[in-house]
Amino acid sequence: MSTLLEVTDLHVEFRTRDGIAKAVDGVSYAVQAGQTLAVLGESGSGKSVTAQAVMGILDSPPGRITAGRIAFHGQDLLTMPERERRAVRGARMAMIFQDALSALNPVLSVGHQLAEMFTTHRGTSRKDARAKAVELMDRVRIPAARQRAGDFPHQFSGGMRQRVMIAMAIALEPELVIADEPTTALDVTVQAQVMDLLAELQREMDMGLILITHDLGVVADVADHIAVMYAGRIVETAPVHRIYAAPAHPYTKGLLESIPRLDRKGRELYAIKGLPPSPHHVPPGCAFNPRCPLARDRCRTEQPPLYEVAAGRTSACHYWHECLHGTRDSGTPEGAGR
Amino acid sequence: MGRYVIRRLLQMIPVFIGSTFLIFVMVYALGDPVAALFGDRAPDPATAAQIRRDLYLDHPLWQQYLHYMGQIFQGNFGTAFDGESVLSLMAGAWPLTLRLTIVAIVVEAVVGVVLGLLSGLRRGRTVDSGVLVLTLIVVSVPTFVSGYVLQYLFGVRWNVVPPSVSPGAPLNQLILPGIVLALVSLAYVTRLTRTSVAENHRADYVRTATAKGLPRHTVVVRHLLRNSLIPVVTFIGTDIGALMGGAIVTERIFNIHGVGYQLYQGIVRQNSPTVVGFVTVLVIVFLLANLLVDLLYAVLDPRIRYA
Amino acid sequence: MPEPSSAQNPGEAVGNAGAGGTMDLAATEAETLVPGRGGEPDPGDRPRSLWSDAWHDLRRNPVFVISALIIVFLVVIAIWPQSIASGNPLACDINKSQDGPAPGHPFGYDTQGCDVYTRTVHGARASITVGVCATAGAALLGGLLGALAGFFGGWWDALLSRISDVFFGIPIILGGLVFLSVVTSTTVWPVVGFIVLLGWPQIARIARGSVLTAKQNDYVLAARALGAGSTRILLRHILPNAVAPVIVVATIALGTYISLEATLSFLGVGLRPPTVSWGIDISSASTQIRDAPHMLLWPAGALSVTVLAFIMLGDAVRDALDPKLR
């Protein structure tokens, strides 16, 4: 198993009217070949911006990568000439967007948009590219692919459109696919079908997958590893089965507890109190401290590093012990009663 | 699609009747064509009555209008008071104006879209501000002023082109008049393209196109520009009619004997058949251009469905 | 020269091609204006309305300040031309025909031997009068008819749309030539009347569009549900919100109307001597452009600056009133 993608200490800033917003503030994660990394977080946590930086499609200006390294097969994408980078983008590394209706060009047929992958990267003739586009649509199980290749995005249903997006991403059998909330815009019944398809294609093609989501339910079935993000930073990483059993960060814990569960029927649903911070006014210390049940003075002044809590597990919480084992450290009584 | 075309054609009929009738009323009811025929001399009453009968002028206005339109649709545009048939005037004038309009449209489309694209892609930067100021200035200088100034500079001062166009109006002599005619529209095309490009620049599908690894020029031309041009094409289409009307001023400045020139002469000399004939054709061209734009719109934007 | 064009455009994307391309864009962008809140004239519990926000922005916008200053200056010399040019614009000395600048006559003389400076200053009155009156007329007539059409809909709306289609079908310079060539009056009123006649449909469309938008607002629906009458809803809730786009379009239209008046005067059917008008002066200067370009320069420059000032003002007002651009 080799490391496919390694993001190290990535910083992204947005210059806006209200000042500089640190959208991504020192994020590091890695994806192994053929494995799935789920990146979890609320909107505004920087999960999508990180993905855009990896793909090299950051809106710039106002976005700007100020520091960090994004290594793909050990090669830094950030220092790569744009020409080479473009050859990677789409062909070896592809992205699935959340809202296929707006992410697909409304005035070009889906067949054309799929064929473009082959004509651009492989120099395939238009006719052959068109045939391959139909094959692709078949592969993602769009019925009557041949007839529908000439249709435009608005003529497809939401689920079918997302299949087109997936087809476009897997067209050139990339090594890495980044799926940014691929099912959020879909009906619940369709969500499962699309996720199943994605998982199946991943297995078949042995692709690495970064699944960006805020839905913990989706993650359990498909992910190998999880990275939880909050306010532009990673707060916890862990293998998927471990995190459900015992989260090592109060934020993750809060997320897990706010999932409605049948065995807790009738009880009030847990909700993390407060709101995520604005990227312009991130609280000092641990960004989560105003909302954290474990917070004490140290959390308000000292930013926690990523502690290694077990093999392959990290947590950015000073008091990860308490969270993980449900116990309190001795000598810190002030958080009691919260 | 076929049904849509037919519906649009039917919708045009009242507009066509209304517009031509309005002009007809202005020409025939407000002025006195027979008096105009005689110039300053007082017409002999008997002769005048005879002429009125010949010209169908002794009927109520709406009957005159019906009679006139009936004639037109049989291809008879009547005779100008100086004896020349209106049809032959048209045969001489229309090709010139058509050529002039084509030059103007090409100038306005090419230059306008390029400038608009450049400033739209660099919104807020120096290029953008420069282009915006330039378009404001161009819009503010009336065509007849810019026409004379450019004619003076290029035709007289620097002697680059002949100051007035020779009778045959070869294409190379029409470039300057074409630019003059296009100037104001050019500024609108630029601004419209700019707004449209700047709006679409952040669109998700443009980001998708980049994520696909397409080269920058493909992203810009095939994905961004293609979508941004939809409103621009519509504007240019509806502008065809406006340009033909605006040719009155341009043709006068550069002495081109096209539709605008003939119309102007017709109006000044109260040559009613000429005026109404030319205007009728102008209105038809205008309406057809609008229909064409509608259809083009459907081709460019598949989301528009015609029921 | 701007022309009216389209009968009915497909899609609202481009709005309509109205009595001038300028207005096309203004129209396009103005139609997207989101009517602000604040139908209720109740300054107490309304922290910042669309208008006070806009005013706040405008005062800091150099484009607005400059164009407003130019316009104030133009209005002043239109009302009191004698204040900066005491001479008589009609007092000419043929012996000085086409002479260059002389002491007290900085712009030189025209073909008739009239002082170009005096004529240029006095020419402002005709242009400003035509622009202001025609815009006021077109905005009132078009605004009222458009608002009624948008509010009541139905056959009234259909009829108005067809009528404005007819007016859009006539190229404006052409219509001006036909209509004004039979008029012999030397006052500005026939020109004003004609511009109102062909200009109102364009404003009516904008007014109709913004009333339609305002009508859908929740508070209007709520007022209706509470049993407020049509007149009350129209006056208190809808009109205040429909006014902003009309003002924007009207300001820009004012510039193009001035330009239109000059064009018609240039063609010999607009204002006529002895009225002092930039259009007339440019027309007579144009034949002498080879020998005396200065005769063209001043009136043409004055005309262009005036039109520019109004278009810039309209642009600035639109930017201030359009919350989308913030």
Automatic annotation (TrEMBL), chain A:
Domain ABC transporter, residue spans: 5-256
Keywords: ATP-binding, Cell membrane, Membrane, Nucleotide-binding, Transport
Any one GO molecular function term: ATP binding
InterPro entries documented for this protein: AAA+_ATPase, ABC_Ni/Peptide_Import, ABC_transporter-like_ATP-bd, ABC_transporter-like_CS, Oligopep_ABC_C, P-loop_NTPase
Gene3D superfamilies per record: P-loop containing nucleotide triphosphate hydrolases
Lineage top rank: taxon: Bacteria
Compartment(s) of residence: Cell membrane
Membrane topology: Peripheral membrane protein
rRNA-binding keyword on record: no
Record's keyword annotation contains Membrane: yes
Annotated family: Belongs to the ABC transporter superfamily.
Name the record gives this protein: ABC transporter ATP-binding protein
Organism: Streptantibioticus silvisoli
UniProtKB/TrEMBL annotation, chain B:
Chief location category: membrane
Membrane topology recorded in Swiss-Prot or TrEMBL: Multi-pass membrane protein
Classification of source organism: Bacteria, Bacillati, Actinomycetota, Actinomycetes, Kitasatosporales
PROSITE patterns to which the protein is assigned, alphabetical: ABC_TM1
The keyword Transmembrane helix appears for this protein: yes
UniProt keyword terms in alphabetical order: Cell membrane, Membrane, Transmembrane, Transmembrane helix, Transport
A Pfam family that the UniProt record links to this protein: BPD_transp_1
Gene Ontology BP, a term: transmembrane transport
PANTHER family, per database record: DIPEPTIDE TRANSPORT SYSTEM PERMEASE PROTEIN DPPB-RELATED (PTHR43163), DIPEPTIDE-TRANSPORT INTEGRAL MEMBRANE PROTEIN ABC TRANSPORTER DPPB-RELATED (PTHR43163:SF7)
Top-rank taxon, per record: Bacteria
Identification of the protein by name: ABC transporter permease
Family from the record: Belongs to the binding-protein-dependent transport system permease family.
Transmembrane segments: 12-31, 96-118, 130-154, 174-192, 232-254, 274-300
CDD domains: TM_PBP2
Residues annotated as domain ABC transmembrane type-1: 94-297
GO annotations of cellular component type: plasma membrane
Location within or outside the cell: Cell membrane
TrEMBL record, chain C:
Compositionally biased region (Basic and acidic residues): 39-48
Bilayer-spanning residue ranges: 62-80, 128-152, 172-200, 242-260, 296-317
Keyword Metal-binding: no
Gene3D superfamilies per UniProt: MetI-like
Keywords, in A-Z order: Cell membrane, Membrane, Transmembrane, Transmembrane helix, Transport
Compartments in which it is found: Cell membrane
Gene Ontology cellular component terms for the protein in this record: plasma membrane
Domain ABC transmembrane type-1: 124-314
Membrane topology (UniProt): Multi-pass membrane protein
Record-linked SUPFAM superfamilies: MetI-like
Chief localization: membrane
Region of interest (Disordered), residue spans: 1-48
One GO-annotated biological process of the protein: transmembrane transport
Pfam families linked: BPD_transp_1, OppC_N
Similarity comment: Belongs to the binding-protein-dependent transport system permease family.
PANTHER family: ABC TRANSPORTER PERMEASE PROTEIN (PTHR43386:SF6), OLIGOPEPTIDE TRANSPORT SYSTEM PERMEASE PROTEIN APPC (PTHR43386)
Protein name: ABC transporter permease
